[in-house]
Design brief:
- This protein is mostly beta strands.
- The protein has two helices and 24 strands.
């Protein structure tokens, strides 16, 4: 599945976690390594730019953290990021430069690239969100199958067994997810794709497309 490879989804210059992906082919391969990576990287961060706010919690001095936000480590919040009112970061999370984690949004075991917005009532678990991706209000990543079996990434007749019980969504750079959409376990959305509001998404969605439903995926056209 060529389109699911890291090199075809992400600009790694747009995350402090670039080295996390170094030896991986597919992005979900790093989900089990996020926690240890944060602990190792955090101890090396420039103390003139970052401060420790608890055990294994590093927050950039230029980041804006609401007093009502809950931060749990391991965690890195990069420069100019915003963690807003009642946001809940459960741990093992990297919040990129200029990213927004908004009102009542929950984040767990995730890499959020620079300039990502998850601003209103979102759940992001066991997921990777690429540069400038955006999740509309109420949209969530569902990270465990209802039958609790291991997640398989499916693209037509192609399948990749991930060996993971918890796997939310891999969003490429510049993906727009419409309000109140559900990204089912094992969803991979290619770069520059738009997901219609109220969508139920599963499997691989091609780059540069507009997803209306499983049977109606249109290629974007230049205007």
């Amino acid at each position: 599945m060529e389109q699911c490879k890291i090199e075809n989804l992400y600009d790694l210059s747009e995350t402090i976690a670039a080295d996390l992906f170094k030896d991986a082919v597919y992005p979900w391969e790093v989900l089990g390594k996020i926690k240890d990576f944060i602990i190792a990287l955090g101890s090396r961060l420039d103390s003139s730019r970052f401060e420790e706010r608890g055990e294994n919690i590093w927050v950039a001095k230029s980041a804006k953290i609401a007093p009502t936000a809950c931060l749990n480590g391991p965690l890195i919040v990069d420069e100019e990021a915003q963690v807003r009112h009642c946001a809940f970061i459960r741990g093992s999370a990297i919040i990129g430069k200029g990213a927004v984690v908004g009102n009542s949004t929950e984040v767990k075991n995730a890499v959020i690239f620079n300039s990502v917005q998850v601003p209103h009532y979102n759940y992001v678990g066991d997921s990777i969100l690429g540069y400038k991706s955006h999740m509309g209000a109420g949209s969530i990543t569902s990270n465990v199958k209802s039958d609790k079996t291991l997640v398989v990434v499916k693209n037509g007749k192609e399948e990749i067994e991930t060996g993971l019980k918890k796997f939310g969504a891999m969003l490429g750079d510049h993906v727009e997810v419409g309000c109140n959409s559900v990204l089912n376990p094992g969803t991979v959305v290619g770069r520059n794709t738009n997901i219609y509001p109220l969508s139920m998404v599963r499997g691989v969605v091609p780059a540069g497309s507009i997803y209306k439903n499983r049977n109606e995926i249109a290629a974007k056209t230049d205007r």
